[in-house]
Structure formats: C-alpha cells, structure tokens
Amino acid sequence: MNHHDHSYKLLFSHPQMVRDLLLGFVHEAWVAELDFSTLERVNTSYISENLRRREDDIIWRVRRAPDDWLYIYLLVEFQSQPDPWMAMRMLVYVGLLYQELIKGRHFTKNGKLPPVFPLVLYNGEQPWKAAEHTAEMIEPLPGGLVDYRPDLRYLLIDENHYAGQALPTNENLAAALFHLENSQAPEELQAMVKTLNQWLYAPEQASLRRAFTVWLKKVLLPARLPDVEMPDLSDLNEVSTMLAERVKEWTQQWKAEGMQEGLEKGRKTGEATMLCKMLELKYGPLPAWAQEKIAQADAATLEQWATRLFNAQTLDEVFNSET
Fold first, then answer.
1. What span, in angstroms and rounded, lies between the C-alpha atoms of 130 and 89?
2. Count of CA atoms in the C-beta half-sphere (13 A) of 297
C-alpha cells in the first residue's frame, strides 16, 4: 500500500470525514435521513469460501433517523488509477460483505439484508471512463438472457470535477481535502491549510488533525514541492506556519521551474520541427513511425539523429543506434 492510499484510509477512518463526504457529495434523498451520530466502522477482513484472505477498503454503517434501525453499509473504494473492471470488483466486494452479514445474522426487522452503498472515491489525473454498471460490461445475448445479467451500480466521486470551485462555507472537511488535492499554487495551498487548521481547533479533533498532518507531510507537500526538504512536522499548526513562512520563496521557485520547463519544451519543439524538415528534404515524406519516434524523443536524441543525417544513406540508418 502506498503513502497516498494509506493516508486516505487514515483520513476516512474518522466519522466526520465520512459524514462530510456524504453530505457534501452524495446528492440523494436518503442521506438526509441518516443519524450520523451512529456512524461506526465495520470489520473489513473477510475469509471467502475459497479460503483466500483479502483486505477490503473502509466500510461504515449508519442508522436512519429517527426511529428506523435500518442500517446502511457504506463501501468505500479508494482509487488513484482508472480501473476498467471496477464495477465487477465492486460486485465481488459487495457479495463478500453480504456473505458476512448473513453469517453474522445482520438482518433488518423484516428479515432482509440491509442496503449496501458502493462508493468509489477517485483522485487520479487521468479521466475516469470505466463503466459504472456491471450490466454495461456483459454482452447482451438475445433470447431473454439479458434479464439475468447482474446490474450493480457504484457511485463515482471524481475529485477533479471540483477543481476551481469555491470552498463551501459549512466547514466540509471532504471538500477541504479535495481543494487541497486540486491546489495549483503555493499561496492557494497555504490559505487552505490555514483554513483547515482553524476548522480543526477543538481538542476532540486532535486525531483528525494528525491524520491531515500525515497526509500533507507524506503525500501532498512532496508531490507539490519535490525538490524542497521538508522539516519535521508533527501538527497541522506547524504545517500552516511553515507554509506561511516559505510560500513566497516557493512561489518564485515554481515560477522559475515553469519558465525553464517552457524554454526546454520550446527548444525541443524547434529541434523536432527542424529535423523533420531536413529528413523530408533528403528522404521525402516521413512515414508515421518516424514521426512518432521524433515526437517522443528528448532534445539530446534529436540532436544525435540530426548529426547522423549527414552520413546516413537511408532513413533507417538515422534512427539506428549502431550506425
């Protein structure tokens, strides 16, 4: 398990994070009926029938208000890369959970199984294009077989969809997490950490403060500032103070790195264009494979190929390292 997955699990091991995730990002009527004071973790270690042990992600249960003791189980699957088979994975996870509920005789007052709410929280950079219904992944054979396809659906919460949106004024911690993930500048990051530090001031929130501190220290700050040596940070207040002291310095560094990256990209583009023109003058129109190699090459390789051009008899010899 990488630092990102572990720190996310640590954050969503707190009921306040789960509550804010549901209230802020699950826009369905049943959410308003939940008694969030009853939120409690469920053991997520299963032994399936083939005796293979698996550790699932975080599962919670919560009671509906005011007098209905029906439990809602929340199955949360954290994902940092798109998974085209996620719907099938969730079908298996939900099935394993229901097996355990049957074994433990966790039934409703009507003798039925409680509902399960499968939720995928996605924080990767690539667009999520995977099917969200299992039925979409199964060939619809004619003759009535289509009626027997399993049709489980999960809810996808893609953090990228909330980039650039204003932070809610109701102190939603899940929204604060998404804003930190989507922060694009040191000033924006520093302001959000300062706000988060103000929200989590109460002594009973000490554990959640530590969880955010761990995530910032081990995941977000190293990703945003990869070349900066981080001091030993043990509290969210220390993170906020450190950012306030160094934000101007880091802003200048980010701008300098961005300018350098732009210059290097421009230099490479110019060299690639020039190489293509030189090759076309000597060999004629370039085939697709040659254009692709040039597009993917770095500046040093482009320069090497340009040098070979003068002595190469064929196009293959230009790109052949043995020539």
1. 12
2. 24
Environment class of 132 (CB within 10 Å of its CB; exposed 0-12, middle 13-18, buried 19+):
middle
**CA distances, 53 to each of 49, 60, 91, 119 (Å):** 10, 20, 17, 22
pLDDT (tens digit, 9 = 90+) per residue, 30-80?
Answer: 999 899 999 988 876 655 554 345 555 688 889 886 666 667 777 777 777
> Residue 120 to residues 49, 79, 86, 111, 274: CA-CA distances in angstroms?
25, 7, 9, 29, 47
The Cα–Cα gap between 119 and 174 comes to 14
pLDDT confidence tier of residue 257, bands split at 50, 70 and 90? low
Least confident of 28-32, 183-187, 218-222, 278-282: 183-187
173-181 and 186-199 helices cross at what angle (nearest 10)?
Answer: 160
Residue keyed to tokens 């290097």:
264
